[in-house]
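Query form — protein G-protein coupled receptors family 1 profile domain-containing protein

QUESTION: What is the three-dimensional structure of this chain?
INPUT:
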Amino acid sequence: MALNDTTFDYLYDFYGHSAKGLAIFELTISLFTIISNIFFITLTLTTPSLRTNSTNWFLLGFSISDSLHSLAHFGDAYALWYGSLENRRLCAVVGMFIVSSVTGSFGFPAMIAVERYYKINTIPQSTGFSIGRALFANRAVIPLMVGWFFLSIVLNLPLLLNDAWGEDPSGFCGAKRFTSVPLLLSYELSVMLVFAVSMTITAIYYYRLVAWLKQHQASLLQSSNETVDYTSSVMRVVKIVTLVPLIVATPCVILSAGQMILPQLPMWINRLLISPFLLSSAANPWLTIGLVRQFRVRFLQLMSSVKNPFTKSIAELHNCSNTPVRRI
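ANSWER: The structure tokens for G-protein coupled receptors family 1 profile domain-containing protein are given below.
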């Protein structure tokens, strides 16, 4: 296949030697992330005390979103390994799922921060009605998450309708090199805008919540210390899952969003820069288990229940080995 348009000369490097290395890395990280998130989802759904907290449902939705995104990167590994200049359709299909799923993932830290703020902030509103409280009421949690997943897909429809999915110049299957400013703007106003707005909302509500906790610290300690501890631990998770992607995703965002104006780097350098982004999704469920007491206690109970039968079996085998054999 001859590419006469120099705009797409980067495709020779895209399917070059570095593609195999990124495919192996993506395959390994994606499998670990999917297994970790399935464990977290199962842990949450099978524990009644975890299901009763609405914030945990947003953490669950975040985990589902990360699982879908990792599954898309699993497909990306397959597309990089088996794709070629003559077989580009696979990368186009995978790219659509990667961009749509990462758009969904970007929104969850903001939703968790806003929901926790309205749950712990018990000051009556002067107007008697709050859109935020209505949106994040317990009965609205699942519809809100389903609506967000649906909106994440709708936001990327202009790219789908204009055949914009394919080999991203930064080295993964996403949005192929843009040839028109309107398409680039559509990309900027979908996934990139969601990324920026979500980070901003998360920061705003994080600091609003911290300020509110400090202001009402005395009264909260007298009423419900458990609520304060839970909120503090959840917000630590939110801070980490916001700052880490902000750091590791910035090279990917800059390379992808600025592809029409930035100088073209060697493909292997682009892929080295974007690879750390996958690690944040792998760490998210374990950060939640490690930092949030409800999840940590349930995890330790589960590990103890697994360990005790194993220890008992070892003890029984040891006793059997020490039992004298009766000679006939």
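ADDITIONAL NOTE: Strands lie at 165-167, 173-175.
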